[in-house]
Amino acid sequence: MNQNSSTMSPVRKGWDLVVRSGVILPLLYLLFLFWRAPYLDPHDWDYDEGINLMKTMLVSQGYPLYTEVWSDQPPLMTMTLAGLFTFTGPDVAAARIVIMVLSALLLWSVYLLARASGSTLAAILAVLVLVFSEFYIRLSGAVMIGLPALSLATLSMAVLVTGRLQWWRIGVAGILMALALQTKLMVGIVGPAAMVAILWDSRPPQERLRVTQRIARSAGFAGVTGAVFLLLALFFGALRFDLLLATHFSELTRNQEKFVAEAATFLPHFVEQQLAFLVVAAGGLVYALWKRQRTAVVPLFWLATTLAVFSDYRPLWYHHVILLNVPLAWLTVFGFDAFFAAVWTSLRWRPWPAALAGGAGLAGLAGVVLWIFFTYPQPLPERQFVQMNLYRPLYVPPVADQLAADAAENPGWIFTDHPFYAFQAGVPVPPPVAVISRKTLETDIIRQEQILEMLKTYEPAYVLLERFTYNYSPYVIDEIRAHYEMVLEAEPARYYRRIAEPAEQSATADLALRGAWAESERAPFP
């Protein structure tokens, strides 16, 4: 017999609350991450890490986003890390620990959603599905904005789904969604599913709101989200839709040949990598339809919306897969519960031949799913190894060490297409080219003439070419060769120091070039 809650000791009540909340799961995952220690890895997990960290360094040094530091992403993560760096100093480990905490928060949000849709055991298994989904462990320790934004958006969804639709829940959920959008606009994909969660209202009939009440609350959610988003944008000076939207949806970006070709392989690769989970989710949907479980509509709509957006969005990178993996993990809870229900039904059959046959069939089904999970498309350990290393940037320790030594002796600017080195050494990249990437170069957002002007204007003390060594125009290379000496070459990395010039001549040239830069941001290409 269960102990009455009124007779429980405060310690017992507290422990019972912790167990029911599911908070143990994210805490265990956080301990797992600290054991793996991705925050201590000297190598960057993705080129975006260096870009995000360098933007933060420049902002913390007083260079404002969007006016001096080019950026096509919302400001919240940059500003948050800049605030953190006022206490820790520019520190890769500190920034990665923030991501680790937000990853644990995302797992907890998925648990809350899954637990509201099924049994506790099925919810725990759904969380494990997300942990073992493609790239999740790797993204849990990388300074990238997709996972943090999705963490806030999923928590917003959990606030809406896990209790009665009171107005305070609408307000909290709207604030969280606005924070998510101010981290990365792409999580707007989750917004329609959140509206469906309000309008559909999957609670028991006796708790369900009237249609007019649901419409009012959905309008309230949209209003709070929009108002808070706008207030944050005004506060951070981030009402720059020319940068935040145009660079992502321009025809040049969407029709870029390489981006189109890469996007065509994204969804087939997703199906291949998540086949076991898709089988569980598909079975769960059939079960949910049979049992008339209204909750399944929300993750299904979320997954379908994301697939629809991805069918036309360019470019699609490997880390976008997490936007599919979260609703997929939620859907698997119905599949796990369907399996448990079938097992229980099989055990209750009185004729033992029927029970034996049913049990054998269920064991075979479970075996097939487990076989797919552990062996397809590669054995699980090999798959995890590939996910931790695929698309990982080249990292040349001698280059990093030489830059750190030079910067300690002679601080200055650096022009580099791999800014993670620069952040580690504490050397700033000129703000106009801090976000140099495949997208900005291949779609002419940052043009070769701008790079040439930057070299003449800022006269960086160092140049480090690695990621796009063979993609710069002859004019850029000629400028580098004319004013820099190569110190270190480690294919494809080229590390240069600026050749010392007479102080008077250098100062005169600097004034003239800075005046030319102020007159025209984009001078004609020579």
Describe it for me?
The protein contains 27 helices and 4 strands. A 4-stranded mixed β-sheet has the order 1-2-4-3. 66% of the residues lie in helices and 4% in strands. A hairpin with a 2-residue loop joins strand 3 and strand 4 (493-498). The protein has helices spanning 10-21, 24-36, 47-60, 76-88, 92-117, 120-132, 136-139, 146-161, 167-181, 190-200, 211-236, 241-244, 246-249, 251-254, 257-264, 266-273, 275-291, 297-310, 322-348, 352-375, 380-389, 397-409, 419-425, 438-442, 448-458, 474-483, 503-519; strands at residues 414-416, 462-465, 484-490, 493-498. The protein has 526 residues and is mainly alpha-helical.
